[in-house]
Amino acid sequence: MICPKCSSMRIKKNGRKKSTAADGSEKLAQQFHCHSCNSNFSIPINTEIDYVEKKVEPGEVLEVKSDYVMRIHGLTDIHVGAVDFRRDKFLEAVKEIYEDPHARWFGNGDILECIPPNYKIVQRGQVISPDEQHLAFMDLVRPIQDKCIFIRGGNHDYLRSINMLDYDVSRMIARDMDVPYFELPGYLRVNISGREWYMASGHGSSGAKNGDLELDKMRDVYSMGDIFYLGHNHQLYAKPIDSLGIDEDGRETLKRCWYIRGGSFLGYAHYVRYRLMRVARAGWVVMEFKKDDINCWVA
Length: 299
Prior knowledge:
Number of helices: 6
Helix content: 10-25%
CATH architecture of the largest domain: 4-Layer Sandwich
Order of helices and strands: EEEEEEHEHEHHEEEHEEEHEE
Structural class: alpha/beta
CATH topology of the largest domain: Purple Acid Phosphatase, chain A, domain 2
């Protein structure tokens, strides 16, 4: 457990607290006290006994709603357990999400470094084993677990665990967090006071220098998207793409969508340095949805 305010690990449990929700149901939260900054915080305790898996099947559209504004943080290519994992940068994201009442987030694959034993590459690229990576990630995101929209797998976690063991570690992370699991690319519908926006997202698979090429392919498939979001190649940018549309009065108007490559939480890894690949700054993208417009920026 870490403190969401100062990132200290000098945390102690400080009792449990009951509260009553708007629907009359009782909620139970675990209280914590930080001995470094003397702050208190809490996380919800799941009181459900029976688990119902929340897997988003191909063709289904997941929806989130807000009455005013929603700022969605895309956390992709985290690589917990990697030698070059930027824990400090990831804790920045956790803190920002925790402190913003309008913030939500999703995990977009390569959450873990996940180099299995006897894999085709050596294990020196990770400092802890895959099972410890899983536990470490859960500890890192526990302060913001209740703000997670969904979890998706990537080539490091989902594909490697499936190919080696026929076991989907990304699905298990989603199950542990009690959030929907997005196995494949698809739509997220963001409803802001009745106005519907659509984000098409996936982990990505192309390592091309021009990250827009794969986003172009996604736009061809998910043509209703207002945002097109991919990770995988560790490029970090958010840029508007304008086209000509027709408004409700039948006149030509500008229509804007966004192209996003979600970045990563890695430093300049050894294998990247060896191949003289371009330096990509660690970070993530925030997507702000309002009733009248969308704005995106790099954090």
